[in-house]
Every structure is written in C-alpha cells, then in structure tokens.
Amino acid sequence: MTRGDDRSKRRRAPAAGARELALDTLLRVEREGAYSNLELGRALQQAGLSRPDAALATELVYGTLQRQATLDYWLGRFVAKGLDRLEPWVRLLLRLSLYQLVYLDRVPDFAVVNEAVALARRRGHAGIAGMVNGVLRSALRRRGELVAPKGGAPAQRLAIAHSYPEWLVRRWIDTYGAEEAEAICAAGNRPPPSSIRVNLRRGTVEAVQRGLRESGIEAAPAGASPAGLIARGAGNLADRDGYREGRWSIQDIGSMLVAEAAEPQPDMEVLDCCAAPGGKSTHLAELMDDRGTVWANDLHPHKQRLIEQQAQRLGLTSVRAVCGDAAALGERFAPGSLDLVLLDAPCSGLGVIHRKPEVKWTKSPADVAELAKLQERLLDAAAPLVRVGGRLVYSTCTIAPEENERQVEAFLARHPDYALDPQWPEPLLAALRRAQALPERFAGMLQLLPQTFGSDGFFIARLTRKSR
Ligand SMILES: C[S@@+](CC[C@H](N)C(=O)[O-])C[C@H]1O[C@@H](n2cnc3c(N)ncnc32)[C@H](O)[C@@H]1O
Description:
Strand 5, helix 15 and strand 6 form a beta-alpha-beta unit. The protein contains 21 helices and twelve strands. The chain has four domains: about 5-145, Orthogonal Bundle (N-utilizing Substance Protein B Homolog, Chain A); about 155-190, no CATH class; about 195-250, Alpha-Beta Plaits; about 255-465, Vaccinia Virus protein VP39 (Rossmann fold, 3-Layer(aba) Sandwich). Helix 2 (about 20-30) runs parallel beside helix 4 and helix 6 (about 90-105) runs parallel beside helix 8 (about 125-140). The chain has about 475 residues and is α/β, with parallel strands linked by helices.
C-alpha cells in the first residue's frame, strides 16, 4: 500500500458517494485482481446509494475500465510527468473523471472537476488536487483534441479508438480481418442484453412474456434460442418472482445455444464436466424433460451448492452435482458409459468483455497458451467417457483459435475415433443462417461473435464418437 492510500483512509468522508465508491471498486479491481461485477455488487450492497447514484457508480466503473486505453491516450497529453508515474488512485481518479466529462452528461462539467479536486484533496495533498484540477481543466479547454487517431497501423488505431490492448486487436485482425475485428471491439463496449431462458417445463415463452409485460418489462424473442427472450429496461432480473419461482433463468444467448446444439434426449446419461454455477446443466435437464441424469461436476466444492440451488429453483431432480477435477473424471465414470459429455471449459473469456471489461487488461497471450494446454488435457480426459455413437460437446466463451477451432482440430488429430458433427437441430441452424452466423461450409463448430446477437463471444463444437 502506498503512502497516499494510507492518508486517503484517514481522511475519507464516512458516506462514500457514487464517485468514491467507483474509485474504490476500480482500485480493488486493479490491485487485487477482483472481478468488477462481483466487487461492484458487494460495494453497492454495503453503500445503500440512491438508485440514480448506484446507476452512476455502475456506469463509472464499467465505462472507465472499458475506455481505459482511449482515456490514457488523451490523458497522456496533459500529465507532464507521465501517467505511469502517478499513484494508482490518482491515475484512476483522472480516468474516471475524464470518462465522465467525455461520455456522460448527467453532471455538469464544472461539478465533475470540482468533485474530482475535492476527492483528491481528501485522499492526497494540495499538490495532487492542483494537478488533478489542471489536467481536467486542460482537457476541457482542448476538448477538440479528444478524438481517436486517424492514421497509424490498423491494430494501433483500433486499439486506441475502441480501447483494447494492441495484442488482442492484432490477433482479431489476423483471424477475421480489420472490419470484423473492429465490429468485435465495438460490440465489447456495448452493454450486454438482459437475456432470459424460459423454463419450458413450467410455461410457454408467451406466458413469460405476458407476465413480464404485466410487471412493466417488455421482452422480445431472442431469435436464436427457442426459449430465449431479451428484456428491456429490466433492472435486476434476479429480484423478480418469475426468476425466484423458476419460471426462467438469466443466461446469455450464446450460452443457451450450447445445450441446444448438444440436443440431449430424455433418459440420457449426461455429464457436464465444468458445470458451476449450473446454467448449462439445468438447461440440458430442461431439454431432457428432467428424465435421465445430468451429472454436474465442478472442481470447487463450494460451487456444488450453487448448482444444487439452481436445480432446486427450476424444479429439476435429474441434476446431480458432484465435485472433482475434470482431468480425473475417468476415476468416477466408466469408459463409454455416457450418452453425452459437455466440456464447457475454463477459458480466457475474451468473449465476455462486455460483461467484464477488466478482461481486456488482465488477460495476456500467455494466458491463452496456458488455458489451451489445460483444455487439451480436459478434452483428452472427457473423450473416453462417451459411448460409441454418443456426443462430445466442447464450448468456451472466448474468441481465440488456439482455444477453439485449432483446439478441436488438434483433438481430432489425436482422436481418430471422433468426427465433427454438423447435424445440429434444424431450427437452430436456420436461426444461425438468418443471422449470417453460420460459415458457408459448416462442419460442426461455430464461433459466435458478440456483434451477431449481442451475446457473449461463444465457441461451440459438436463431435460424435464413431468407434472405440
Ligand atoms: C465456464 S465456467 C462453467 C460455466 C457453466 N458451465 C455454466 O454454464 O453455468 C468453467 C467452470 O469450470 C470450473 N473448473 C475449472 N477448472 C476445472 C477442472 N479442472 N475441473 C472441473 N471444473 C473446473 C470452474 O470452477 C468454473 O465453474
């Protein structure tokens, strides 16, 4: 901890406002590697801010993380000694204040600057407050300069304009070309839609839509998944009766497509290798009309309870939560004993940047390489468990060929007893075709990009075991 932070602890006003709460949350995300959504949720619960202030704090946390590279590019012009040499809390205060000046209009400019200066004075000393004042006033005076660079290499230009690390943009350009890469970057900066998966065992999509409308929420069909709805202006959906009563779940649209593509049938023996918190396990069980067994395994014992709670909420008795390393599932399940195995693998999460913007700054190429090795081990462990004629479905919420297409190609080279299976349910294929999300020569694996449905960037591969 730096001296400035010590001082800030002594002087902080007892009631933290929206900006102070946002600053503290950003500090914990940066320093402790905390997840922004969890950290913010915890802070908001403790603070008891008014609804508008809670909304402002939320916007400040996500927006500042999202636009970090763009903000730093601009701030670099006004901070004489260089941003890197500032104490973390000062750098974050400048970022969040500039974010507010450029991207938000609820608070007048003079008030944003005054509040930033007051906060700097409470936490630091007069010199820091003066510097914050000077930087923000310069930025306001030279507002016309706060634009993205026009020239330069595409990766560098997009990285600054959309605020991403250059290595990531370069990768997406290499894989998809500059235009698609820009669309991925832009989609990652848009808020994710509030999507709902209707529990079709407890009612129809139309009935849920009606119920939501009666409580003031408009919801439209999600398009790709027959059970999916997108709600507008919904606030915290987990607070609604329909959620508590298990009439629906909160799930990303891309995530919903995994169980749809897996196409489980009633009475099957199914294993979900990495299951917590149970989103896909419960979806599989719903599609099986709760007949058969869905073994929902996860490495972490404390997550078993999360899976059980979801199954209970949805009225599902076929989900059996178990705990263990997916690399050692051969010790629990006999070879060839399962009709369907889902490996929704731990991954770099580059497809969920619109939910967790810090992923932009916390992940590195080395993480991608390391996770690809883990996924390879988990795939090899899952493969023998599937019966001949059965299915292995592999999915991730990332956009990285090493973890996705190349991972599956390497798996097929090691396992000639498997083949990709493009015979996904026809309604799903039709919806993907309509959205132009299906490659011309669809072989059985799909990289869903976040700009298609506003979903997470998801990868799904469906494989069939042909022989022993
Ligand atoms: C992508 S999340 C799964 C999300 C889940 N399928 C859902 O839809 O709700 C990956 C999960 O893998 C678990 N995990 C990580 N390493 C594992 C391992 N070696 N064995 C089993 N589970 C693991 C994590 O605890 C995490 O819950």
